[in-house]
Write a structure and sequence with these properties.
It contains two helices and eight strands. It is of the alpha/beta class. Strand 2 and strand 3 form a beta hairpin. It has a single domain, classed as Roll (2,3-Dihydroxybiphenyl 1,2-Dioxygenase, domain 1), CATH 3.10.180.10. InterPro entries: Glyas_Bleomycin-R_OHBP_Dase (IPR029068), Glyas_Fos-R_dOase_dom (IPR004360), VOC_core (IPR037523).
């Protein structure tokens, strides 16, 4: 198999435009394509696309059309976790999981987009 494009994660949501605006406004994504019920976003530094599809979209197989994006986290490793937290709070973004530190060194906080998709920013505390 030869992969010819960056990977994409596609998420079914009730309002793709709202999720798209959230990632553009607060996380620096660029909307590359949009049509009725479809928004594709990217950032050059992550090498992937995030696609929001409208629930009920007839182009999806019938058994997938009405399944809302749940049980997943869009997680992005950043270089200034506290700075990103302060920036998002200043922008009025609701933080739904406070900054936490796990025993294995992961530090993270979360927010949710208007459709409930979890966006997590994280870093790793390296033991010395």
């Amino acid at each position: 198999m030869k992969v010819t494009a960056p990977p994409a994660v596609s998420l079914n949501v009730s309002d793709p435009a709202a999720s798209s605006r959230f990632l553009v406004e607060h996380f620096g994504f660029t909307e590359e394509m949009a049509a009725e019920g479809f928004h594709s976003l990217t950032r050059e530094d992550i090498g992937m696309h995030v696609v929001f599809l409208a629930t009920g979209l007839p182009t999806l197989p019938e058994d997938q059309r009405d399944i809302h994006a749940t049980g997943l986290i869009l997680a992005f490793t950043v270089d200034d976790l506290e700075g990103e937290l302060a920036r998002l709070q200043a922008e009025g973004v609701q933080i739904t999981m406070p900054l936490t530190e796990e025993e294995w060194g992961e530090r993270a906080f979360q927010t949710r987009d208007p459709n409930g998709v979890i966006v997590q920013l994280l870093d790793w505390k390296v033991s010395s």
